[in-house]
Amino acid sequence: MGDFVLKGNICYSVSKTEIKACPHSYIVCMDGKSCGVFEKLPQQYESLPLIDYGNRLIIPGMVDLHIHAPQYAFRGMGMDLELMGWLQEQAFPEEVKYEDLDYACDAYSIFAEQMRKSATTRACIFATRHWKATVLLMNLMEETGLITYVGKVNMDRQAPQELCEEDVEQAILDTRKWLEKNRGKYRNTMPILTPRFLPGCSEPLLEKLQEVRKEYDLPVQSHLSENPEEVESVKKLFPNAGFYGDTYHKYGFFGNDAKTIMAHCVWSTEEEVECMRGNGVFVAHCPASNMNLASGIAPIKRYLELGIKVGLGSDVAGGQNESIFRAMTDAIQVSKLYWRYVDSAWKPLTFEEVFYMATKGGGEFFGKVGSFEEGYELDAIVLDDSMQPYPQELSLRQRLERSIYLSIDLNGIYAKYVAGKKVKCS
Amino acid sequence: MGDFVLKGNICYSVSKTEIKACPHSYIVCMDGKSCGVFEKLPQQYESLPLIDYGNRLIIPGMVDLHIHAPQYAFRGMGMDLELMGWLQEQAFPEEVKYEDLDYACDAYSIFAEQMRKSATTRACIFATRHWKATVLLMNLMEETGLITYVGKVNMDRQAPQELCEEDVEQAILDTRKWLEKNRGKYRNTMPILTPRFLPGCSEPLLEKLQEVRKEYDLPVQSHLSENPEEVESVKKLFPNAGFYGDTYHKYGFFGNDAKTIMAHCVWSTEEEVECMRGNGVFVAHCPASNMNLASGIAPIKRYLELGIKVGLGSDVAGGQNESIFRAMTDAIQVSKLYWRYVDSAWKPLTFEEVFYMATKGGGEFFGKVGSFEEGYELDAIVLDDSMQPYPQELSLRQRLERSIYLSIDLNGIYAKYVAGKKVKCS
User: Fold this and answer.
1) Which residues is B13 bridged to in the sheet?
2) Where are the beta strands (DSSP E) in A265-379?
3) Is 70 exceeded by the pLDDT of residue A1?
4) Per-residue pLDDT tens for A155-171?
5) How does pLDDT run across A273-306, given as a tens digit for each residue?
6) Confidence label for A418 from pLDDT (cuts 50, 70 and 90)
């Protein structure tokens, strides 16, 4: 891998409360990792090739901790429903189609292509229960240059028959086929165990998946305490559990044994929050989805202050698009409504906090990712904000904030690097 | 003005509950007005020039009932404040600059250019208190081809001295100069009386403005019951008023004598709502701004069911951008949170309702505007959704919904017509 230097207006999070903004500075990349950001290029790096991005902004790539690839096809449609109805009427009928590999190829090619063009450099992706289509998706994601976790979904109830595993035995067989098929195959694409959510998973299925998880040492992703109706149904299905996540915990899917992402956490109880915190569970905060499906507002300010690990998720197609820029501003906006209507003890999220979650916060799931501090894997995107002219002088911090608020990612990313490798994004 | 026919996939509101979606159909435009939408072109129109937009979508132009031109320069910045603090720290210091006509020209040229490119065909615009810069803005808006109301702002307190009228006499003198300067000058640009908001207007100023309003028969725009802190301050400033809008009403600025738009109406009392309804006051619903400034959520579903006239506003820079597409989806999203957290008696807004507000609802302020029904002035935008490919068959209604949710307006409008006249938008 080639070493190089990038020059431009560099911004990155160092903590939840601080963004470093370095005008006309240098990032040095060696072996795919940052050697730090410098106002003046140190002499020992002067012989490296330098790419000068002029007056453009260079920021860490976005991390999307929660997105459903098969739902990309119907994003932004049928939005007048709540979670459980929306799953039955929108999501499940679409996901059924991924049994057909021709359709899966058409749909996943569009998804992969759009992810390539987006501001995202790392993502945790749900596929469907179909192992062949999931392998196909992994092949396509590998071609994009992004670094991703992709999960074949496991569910054996509460969905159309074609979308449920035939039985637990077949589920495990399919899951193993999928895992064997991608073992050692990819450089950038990794499997992640993906029990869909508790209403869709029987205990026998969870029990057997636990064995698979241990055998392959897999991380886990799922949904948690998203919508009141769903939370009620989980209470009925698992009457002996102390809280929703308790059942995940019982089977080793709650950070206890496995690195875990739980999407949403809007309605988590005190006990659940404590268990998440204690076990280092990552929360994928998906504010657009939580609005679109009328789920509510997750108390993210509180999670941050408790030291819970939080990143952002687009949750396409609960969320309408893959923009993590949009997720940042949505997160701030809903936190203001939370403060106004739900609990004024928790102040609105700041821009610093959401930028942290979108980069370094979510990036931690992938290792040292999401910042330009020394030793971090170099994921970077270059932004051209010149199509949004302004008449006054602006600081770099102001240009960063407006670029995010104005969703300039939707007009394309000027350049993109993942772990020190340039990837095509236009 | 040339008569013509447009062909394409045509969608428009006929009522709050119905969008007509007409694949591969025709709109006939004569004398700037729609002669209706036809599946097959009637013989009498066959000789008119036909512009075929192929598989693209043709929808009514967007109506923005509330936007601040001088705040465009700092949109998407300094978003971590509430209304009153934000005005003092962000809005007022910027607005002071419009005393300088060179700066005003730079800044307003950017604003006018971006409005020209946007999905908006009609807008109601706040300028600043500076009459010369307001004339300059009107000249620039006239060049865009959009049809707009533009208001010189009146305020005489609670702002930096440079932003307040010197005294009531000077305020009226300046207001008259501005009105005389644009009398009979424009085809598409009209003055609108613009007392900023009650915290910024003394009673002597309001009293004198009432005379000017009558003399020039002006419509009125202002702010109403936006933020709890503001509402409290108005109670103290006008202790004898029954409600916030009561003072506007007293001076004939509340639909009683004048066609009136009031922005926000988040915290309106029962009495105020009844007065708005009875007087035909238009509400400009600005959901992004109401989130960004932590103002709250306006009970729009209730207003619609009461028969109150409601349109959408971008409220730049309370809102971060000028997209009325975004305002539509924001309006649905916050209405879901209103239902979840504030009052479950009011169901979330539907896509049909917000599309109505963005077009025909707000358009009513301009006359027969915002629909393609026979007799409506022909404001149309042409959308190219091909940059967002999809693998399945979609209905036209689905393509419309996803185009709005995916903010495809931010990638540019393919073509734009205002009152039957084509305007440049790229």
Assistant:
1) B19
2) 282-285, 309-312
3) no
4) 999 999 999 999 999 99
5) 999 999 999 999 999 999 999 999 999 999 999 9
6) very high
Of residues B297, B348, B392, nearest to A337 (C-beta): B297
Distances (CA, A) of A387 to A44, A411, B383, B399: 36, 9, 20, 27
How far apart (Å, rounded) are the C-alpha atoms in residues A30 and A27? 10
Q: Which of B108, B158, B167, B169 is nearest to B136 (CA)?
A: B108
pLDDT for the residue numbered B1: 61
**Residue A28 has what pLDDT?**
98
Task: State how far the Cα of B426 lies from the Cα of B417, in Å rounded to an integer.
Answer: 13
Q: How far apart are CA A18 and CA A63, in angstroms?
A: 18
How many contacts, defined by CB atoms under 8 Å, are there between A and B?
137
* Residues from chain A contacting residue B297 (CB–CB below 8 Å): 337, 341
A411: distance to nearest CA of chain B, Å? Answer: 6
Backbone φ/ψ region at A287: left (φ over 0), alpha (ψ -120 to 50), beta: alpha
Q: Does pLDDT of A119 surpass 80?
A: yes
- pLDDT-flagged residues of chain B (< 70): 1
**Based on the number of CB atoms within 10 Å of its own CB, is A307 exposed (0-12), middle (13-18) or buried (19 or more)?**
exposed
Residue in this structure with the two tokens 């975004």, named with its chain if needed: B326
Q: Are B397 and B21 in contact (CB under 8 A)?
A: yes
- What pLDDT was estimated at residue B424? 94
pLDDT value of residue A282 = 98
Chain-wide mean pLDDT for chain A? 97
Q: Do residues B64 and B324 touch, judged by C-beta distance below 8 A? A: yes
Residue A84: pLDDT over 90: no
Question: Does residue B79 belong to the interface with chain A, where contact is any CB pair within 8 Å?
Answer: yes
Residues of B with Cβ-Cβ distance to A337 under 8 angstroms: 291, 294, 296-297, 334, 337, 341
Chain B from 46 to 75: CB within 8 A of any A CB: 73-75
Asked if A337 and B332 come within 8 Å (Cβ–Cβ), the reply is no
Question: Which of A106, A323, A96, A126 shows the shortest CA–CA distance to B389?
Answer: A106
Looking at the complex, does the CB of residue B104 fall below 8 Å from at least one CB of chain A? no
Residue of A nearest to B336 (CA): A294
Predicted pLDDT of residue B308: 98
Cβ A117 vs Cβ A426: under 8 Å? yes
Question: Does B405 sit within 8 Å of A321, measured CB to CB?
Answer: yes
Residues near B43 by Cβ (< 8 Å), separated by ≥ 6? none
Distance between first and last Cα of chain A: 22
Which token pair is A395? Answer: 């600081």
B222 touches chain A (CB under 8 A): no
B385-388: list long-range contacts, CB under 8 Å, 24+ apart.
Answer: B385/B56, B385/B57, B386/B55, B387/B411
Does residue A257 register a pLDDT over 90? no
Minimum-distance CB partner of A296 among B294, B340, B406: B340
Neighbours of B115 (CB within 10 A): 25
Task: Report the run of H or E that residue A150 belongs to, with start and end.
Answer: strand A147-151
As a whole number of angstroms, the distance between CA A409 and CA A403 comes to 8
Smallest Cβ–Cβ distance between A294 and the set B73, B339, B411 belongs to: B339
**Cα separation of B130 and A158, whole Å?**
64
Q: Which pLDDT score is estimated for A81?
A: 80
| Nearest residue of A to residue B323, measured between CA atoms | A406
A106 — contact with chain B (CB < 8 Å)? yes
Report how far residue A246's alpha carbon sits from residue A248's, in angstroms, rounded to the nearest whole number.
5
